[in-house]
């Protein structure tokens, strides 16, 4: 009995050994899968945040223009006292204004010998007049000054006189004679003409052109003029037309 037991035990051991050497595993071991990792994309660098400078414009101050004259600009001033500025270069012309001392003004023109200077009157823009060089002093380049001749005087006044009332027949034989004067501000020739109109303003008659010559400023009489008409109201005119325009009138009436 013991002998059979050992035999059985040995048989079992032999069988076990054969099994361990002959039985192959039913499933071949598999190697671990190879994992390929995609490279991570390289992040693009973020754009640098650069600030654009904002320039605030600075207000530009425009300097105020100040009238000035270059040293070569011909200038003149009264020396010690206020001097007359006359219509023309000479005492024969009437003053039209004055130039006080210490006020420099540009020289606009002069006589050929520079004995008189023409300027624009500071107190009256656009008014030109003459001052004597003997009462003034100058600065600047006087060769730049234009040379001009003296102006002729102009009429600054006129008068007409006559009979204020003429009595006579209304048939047209009422005669009135008129006298007149003209005042000039300097030497020169002044042309004038007589005219007469009715009360409605209709011109009835016109005389011929006449002249009066002045050798200095002042008042001179003109040639008289007569008109004969019927009854009514009349306006007679002394009309200056050269070198300037000026009219003096006189009203009268003719009655029976």
How does this structure look, described?
- The protein has 256 residues and is mainly β.
- The protein contains one helix and 18 strands.
- Strands 11, 13, 14, 15, 17 and 18 form a six-stranded mixed beta sheet that branches.
- A hairpin with a 7-residue loop joins strand 6 and strand 7 (128-132).
- The protein is rod-shaped and about 75 Å long.
Key descriptive features of the protein:
mainly beta; SH3 type barrels; Immunoglobulin-like; four-stranded mixed beta sheet; 1 helix
SSE topology sketch:
Blueprint: H1 2-22, E1 75-78, E2 83-86, E3 95-99, E4 105-106, E5 109-110, E6 116-120, E7 128-132, E8 136-139, E9 146-147, E10 155-161, E11 165-167, E12 174-184, E13 188-198, E14 203-206, E15 210-214, E16 218-229, E17 232-242, E18 246-255
Parallel strand pairs: 5-9, 11-18
Antiparallel strand pairs: 1-4, 1-8, 2-3, 5-6, 6-7, 10-12, 12-16, 13-14, 13-15, 13-17, 17-18
């Amino acid at each position: 009995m013991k002998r059979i037991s050992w035999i059985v035990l040995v048989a079992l051991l032999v069988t076990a050994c054969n099994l361990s050497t002959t039985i192959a595993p039913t499933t071949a071991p598999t190697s671990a899968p190879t994992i390929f990792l995609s490279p991570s994309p390289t992040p693009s660098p973020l754009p640098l945040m650069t600030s654009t400078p904002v320039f605030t414009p600075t207000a530009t101050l425009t300097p105020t223009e100040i009238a000035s004259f270059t040293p070569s600009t011909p200038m003149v001033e009264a020396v010690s006292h206020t001097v007359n500025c006359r219509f023309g270069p000479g005492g024969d012309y009437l003053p039209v204004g004055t130039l006080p001392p210490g006020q420099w003004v540009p020289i606009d023109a002069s006589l050929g010998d520079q004995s008189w200077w023409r300027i624009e009157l500071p107190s009256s823009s656009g008014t030109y007049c003459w001052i004597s060089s003997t009462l003034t002093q100058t600065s600047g380049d006087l060769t730049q000054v234009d040379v001009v001749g003296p102006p002729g005087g102009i009429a600054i006044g006129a008068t007409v006189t006559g009979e204020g009332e003429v009595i006579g027949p209304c048939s047209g034989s009422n005669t009135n004679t008129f006298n007149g004067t003209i005042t000039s501000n300097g030497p020169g020739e002044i042309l004038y003409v007589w005219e007469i109109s009715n009360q409605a303003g209709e011109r009835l008659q016109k005389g011929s052109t006449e002249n009066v010559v002045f050798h200095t400023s002042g008042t001179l009489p003109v040639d008289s003029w007569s008109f004969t008409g019927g009854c009514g109201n009349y306006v007679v005119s002394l009309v200056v037309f050269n070198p300037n325009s000026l009219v003096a009138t006189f009203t009268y009436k003719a009655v029976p």
